[in-house]
Write a structure and sequence with these properties.
The structure holds two protein chains of two kinds. By secondary structure, chain A is mostly helical. In chain A, 77% of the residues lie in helices and 5% in strands. Chain A is built from two helices and two strands; from the N terminus they run H-E-E-H. Chain A has a two-stranded antiparallel ribbon with strand order 1-2. Chain B is an all-alpha fold. Classes of the chains: A mainly alpha, B mainly alpha. Chain B: It is a multi-pass membrane protein.
């Protein structure tokens, strides 16, 4: 039983780390590149606008999609590694 | 064939399809009625979620908002998509594992408290009812514009259609109808956008066209747009925003509000497994992004098109004569959504930003005020006409706008009726009700919800424009934090959760009421709704994120001072964290 608990605890910690890492990227793309860091990125031009504008209107959405699929793929693998899949 | 017949064919055809699906997917049990039997494929659920989520506001209003605000209104694009990342990682898989039917179900069980359940039911009903009013009025507008009936008749037609498939099919009927509605709305949105992108940039993917060269002038489209609007006294389209704190908080409020909206969350109860709930969130985002990546392109291109229609020889030359205005301007003038007033009596249409900073230049050009008012909601609806596209594209837009409004309305009505029948009647008033009895109560409460929504759509309370802020504020400040703490903390107890939800909710409501009027009664606002009066420059629309923070802080503080939750509740938290042992086995 304690083995099982230990295993489950490790699984949950791995999940929390994955969520934390993903949310850092999530915040960097939207609040970072698209809003707060926009003035710093203004030198990088992309199709008539600056990189910050691109992140605000397109880039962040693309990052969100990649993150969500990455999380699903990693977690579904973790489920199996820890033997906790359905 | 005249335009009316074409519109009728498209709208009628799409409705026949929805009816067919409704008859095929009737619900026979509460499980089918609430969660479509729990067997929806993750990709199909993603599609249904996208239709559920993308409302009349996304389809009709969002491009107009971005066209008007440029970069500053990118908040809607990020806010209404970023919430799915939170949903995918923080809520959906665990709530699917929990395996019950509604959002208050989880809050009531996890916080072992009927008070918590009832607070959740109240938040859910206020958020969903305010939201559904907008859908019904949106459907009414679409009907009246394209089918030439009056607004109220349009609303009643919409109500009958929703009634038919939502009451009959429950979540099962709604799910498969939403899949069809997604296909209709995405085709309707994309086709005119592709043509406009081709006309302006020679690029057939609008999202790429947005960052391409404007064919006529040879310079980048966005640069061209900046130049044109600047000549007429408007802020640059790509201009940065000064109040970054407010922009961040507004985006954050939209994101956590999105993740906390019950009609979106319950869609993830319909997939077979926890792993499917994770995939499904990704697919939902892909299907939403197909529209959300096109919308900013539509916005900038439609704005440029509008400017070049009024100033065919460029913004520094004379605008068009009123007598020579294009047909689409005349069409929309009859609806009152475009208004012209010849202030300087020269017979031409002066369209510019009437602000003090531009006064001198306007006077020099003999202008005596802006003469054209364009309702921003018409940009998407008028797109096919602006781009001179054939009549069938207009019919398609009509069907698409209605699909967007009706699919969201149906999802909201289901969230409301399941909260009433499952949480209020079965959960609190009569726990011994039979499955058949509960199903009947669910259908009756759905029927009542449709009547209320239709009535409110016909007699919109004066605050119709503000209610969306209210829905997001409530979802962000009360529902999202309660769900998240219920999953990620074993320590938060019933006292803490109830105190947190109430604190977040009340703080958000009070802040909104201070600036928008107490209970939205006109003239009762304590302060004028201007940035000078806002606390730290935070607008009432952005306060949901602060409300959520208050909820978290209060819940943790109160919990730490009171007894921890009992052992079986801590075990419940454990069990939702691990996918193993969920299956479809947990029934009531």
């Amino acid at each position: 039983m304690s083995d099982h608990n230990n295993n489950a605890e490790k699984y949950w910690q791995a999940n929390l780390r994955l969520i934390l890492g993903s949310l850092v990227v999530w915040a960097l793309a939207s609040y970072g590149c698209a809003i707060l860091l926009r003035p710093m990125l203004s030198g990088i031009m992309i199709g008539g606008a600056d990189l910050g504008f691109w992140f605000a209107q397109q880039g962040s959405i693309l990052v969100f999609i990649v993150l969500t699929f990455f999380y699903a793929w990693r977690m579904n693998k973790l489920d199996e590694e820890f033997g906790l899949q359905e | 064939m005249d335009q009316f017949t074409i519109n009728l064919l498209f709208v009628g055809g799409s409705f026949a399809l929805y009816f067919g699906i409704a008859i095929w997917a009737r619900a026979g049990s509460t499980k089918e009625f609430y969660v479509a039997g729990g067997g929806v494929h993750p990709v199909l659920n993603g599609m249904a979620t996208a239709a559920d989520w993308m409302s009349a506001a996304s389809f009709i209003s969002m491009a107009g908002l971005i066209a008007a605000g440029g970069y500053a209104n990118s908040t809607y694009l990020m806010g209404w998509t970023g919430g799915y990342v939170l949903l995918a990682m923080l809520l959906a898989p665990y709530l699917r594992k929990f395996g019950k039917f509604t959002v208050p179900d989880f809050i009531g069980d996890r916080f072992y408290s009927n008070t918590a359940r009832l607070v959740a039911v109240a938040c859910l009903i206020i958020a969903s009812v305010t939201y559904v009013i907008g859908q019904m009025t949106g459907a009414g507008v679409a009907f009246s514009r394209f089918l030439e009936v009056d607004n109220n008749t349009g609303l009643i037609i919409a109500a009958i259609v929703v009634f038919f498939y939502a009451v009959l099919g429950g979540m099962k009927g709604i799910t498969y109808t939403q899949v069809a509605q997604y296909v209709v709305l995405i085709i309707a949105y994309t086709i005119p956008a592709v043509f406009i992108s081709l006309q302006l940039t020679d690029t057939f993917i609008p999202a790429i066209g947005l960052f391409s060269n404007h064919t006529e002038s040879g310079i980048p489209l966005l640069q061209k747009l900046d130049e044109v609007v600047r000549e007429l006294g408007f802020t640059d389209y790509t201009a940065d925003v000064d109040n970054k704190l407010n922009m961040v908080l507004f985006t954050l409020s939209l994101m956590i509000g999105t993740a906390g909206l019950p009609h979106v969350i319950i869609r993830f109860f319909t997939v077979p497994k926890v792993a499917d709930a994770r995939w499904s969130a990704g697919w939902a985002l892909v299907f939403i992004a197909l529209l959300y990546l096109t919308a900013p392109a539509v916005a900038s291109m439609a704005r440029l098109n509008l400017m070049t229609t009024i100033y065919p020889s460029g913004p520094t030359e004379a605008p068009i004569e009123y007598a020579e205005r294009p047909d689409w301007v005349q069409t929309w003038e009859t609806t009152g959504l475009i208004k012209f007033e010849d202030k300087n009596g020269d017979g031409r249409v002066q369209f510019y930003n009437d602000v003090p900073a531009f006064q001198e230049e306007a006077t020099a050009r003999g202008w005596e005020g802006n003469e054209l008012v364009v309702n921003r909601d018409i940009l998407v609806l008028a797109n096919p006409e602006i781009a001179n596209l054939p009549g069938w594209v207009i019919g398609l837009i009509a069907a698409g706008g209605l699909a967007a409004a009706l699919s969201t309305a149906a999802g909201l009505l289901l969230a409301i009726s399941s909260a009433v029948s499952h949480d209020l009647i079965k959960g609190s008033i009569n726990p011994n009700i039979s499955d058949k009895g509960e199903l009947l109560v669910a259908r009756i409460s759905m029927f009542v919800a449709i009547i209320v929504a239709t009535y409110l759509g016909m007699n919109p309370p004066g605050f119709a424009a503000q209610v969306v802020a209210l829905a997001f504020g409530i979802a962000a400040a009360s529902i999202f934090p309660a769900l998240m703490m219920g999953i990620f903390s074993k320590r938060v107890n019933s006292t803490g959760a109830v105190a947190g939800m109430l604190a977040g909710l009340i703080a958000t409501l009070v802040y909104i009421f201070l600036f928008l009027g107490w209970f939205f009664i006109p003239g009762t606002a304590s302060f004028a709704n201007t940035p000078d009066n806002w606390l730290f420059g935070i607008s009432p629309l952005s306060f949901g994120a602060i409300g959520a923070l208050i909820n978290f802080v209060v819940a943790f503080t109160v919990s730490s001072m009171t007894a921890p939750p009992p052992k079986e509740i801590q075990d419940l938290v454990e069990s939702v964290r691990y996918p193993q042992g969920a299956g479809g086995a947990i029934d009531h």
